[in-house]
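Help wanted!
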Amino acid sequence: MPQPLRIAIGGFALESVSFLPGAASVDDFEKAAYHGDAVITGLRGSQSPGGGFIDVLDAEGAEIVPLVYTDLGAGGSASDEAFAHYCDLLCEGLRRVRGRIDGVLLFLHGAMTTPTRTDPEREIMQAVRGVLGKDMPVFVASDLHGNISADFCEYADALFGYHYSPHTDMDETGRRAARTLVRRLRGEVAPVTVIRKPDVMLPSIFTATSIPPLSDIVAEGFAWERDHPGILDISIFCGFAYADVPQVGFSVVAVADGDQALAERAANALAERIWSARRDLMHDDMVLDLKTGIDRAYEISKTASRPVVLLEHADRLNDSTYLLDALVKRGGRRVMVPYLLDPKAAAAAIEAGEGATITLQVGGWSSERAGPPVEITGTVLYAGDKSYRGTGAMWNGYPIRLGPTAVIDTGDIVVSLVSRYVFAIDLDPFTQFGLDVNDFDIVLLRSKTHFRAVYEPIAEAVLIVDTPDWGPADLTTLPYKNARPGLFPLDRQARAAFR
Ligand SMILES: [Zn+2]
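Answered by r_m:
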C-alpha cells in the first residue's frame, strides 16, 4: 500500500477596507481562530475553503497536518502585529513538519491590508517559500474579491478563487484546490498558472455573479474549462475596490496542465472580455439615493404581502445609521434591522436584562462616514451570548459567533445588536431569536451580494440605497493614493473612451 499523503492546511483571511481607521488585532483574529486539531474538527463539513480541503483529504485517506486557520470576514486593515503573528504561526507550523509533508493548502483572502502593507498575502507566500523552498507544492484558495497581485500568484503553484458571489462555493473552491494538489502529487497533472489583470475595478455591490454581463463572463470561464481539456481551472476575481492597493481590481487566473501558452490564451481572452465590458459592469441605474429608497420601500410595503429589502450597501462595518435614522423618524412600518455591530450598546442591553425597557444610542461609531449614533427606546427581547451553525446557502454548517447580543423591540423596529462582525445574509437573524421574517414590512440589510441567495426569492423587492460610508457605488468619491494609473472607472481617459 502506498504511504498516505501528508498535507498541511491553514488559513489567514480578512477583506480590508484600507480607508477605515483602526486595525484588527490578534485578539480580534483569535475570536475566529482555530489552532491545531481544532482546525480539522471546527471546519470539517463546513461551507468554507478549509472545509473543502478537509473533505477531499478525508476522502483520499490523507493525513492532515493542521496549522492555524482564522477568517475574520470583512472589516478594516489587519494590524501589523496580527499580520506578523499569524504569518509566523503558519511558518513555524511548516518549519516543524518541513521534510515530512507532501504539499500545502492555504486559504488567503487576497484583499487584506495592514497599516504599512498593500500586499500582505504576497509576503505570507514569500515567507512560506522561505521555509519550504520553491519545490514544495503550495496551492492556495482565495476569495472572488481578492486583489490578486502577479507576485502573490507567482509564489503559489496554483491559485483558485470562488466562482460565485454570493459565495455559495467556498467549500467547492477548497475542493478544487485540494483535488488539483492531489492529482499533482500523484503525477497525473503538472499545473502551470497564469494571471492577467484588466484595468477594471468594480464596487462590491455590482459583483453579484448572477447579473449580466458578469454572469456571461463567469460562464465564459467555465466554457474554457469545458472546451479545452488542457485547462484545469479558471478563476475570475472581481477584486475589492475599497482596498487602496496597486493591484486593486479584476484578475483572471488560468491553471493549465503543463501548457503555458494555453493558460495565457485563456487568461488573455477573459481579461480582454472584462475590459470590453467595463461600462456595462457598472449598474449605476440599480442604485437609489436615500430619500428615493425609503419612499419606494414605504410605497411598495403598503400593499406587499412579502418584506421589502432595503440594502445599505456602502456600510463596511455594519454600523451605518443613515437608513435606521430615516426609518426611526418616519415610523409606521414593522422593520427588522439585524446584526447592527455595536458591542457597547449590546452590553448595556444585556446589563438591563430581558424584559427591561431601555434607551440606547446605537451604531455610528466606526468613522465619521458611518453617520451619527441613533437613539432608540424599546424592550429587550433577547440578551446573551449567541453562537450557532449557519443554515443559509452560503454559511450552511459554518460556526457563527455573534458574541454578546441583544434584540430590542421599539414597537416599530426590531434591532439586533451584536458584538462580532457578521453579515445578515440568511434567515438565522430571525429564526435564531424566535422571529419570523414574514412579520416584517421592511428588512434593512448591509450585505453587498451574499444576501441574494436567500432573500431574492422571498422579498417583494430589493432596493439598493447609496449612503456616504466607505463602500459607495461611486468609486470616484474615494481618496485613492495607491491604485495604479489607468484603472477604470477612476481614470478619466478610461472613462472618456465611451463618449
Ligand atoms: Zn468575497
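OP: Thanks! One thing I noticed: Residues 80-97 form the longest helix (18 residues).
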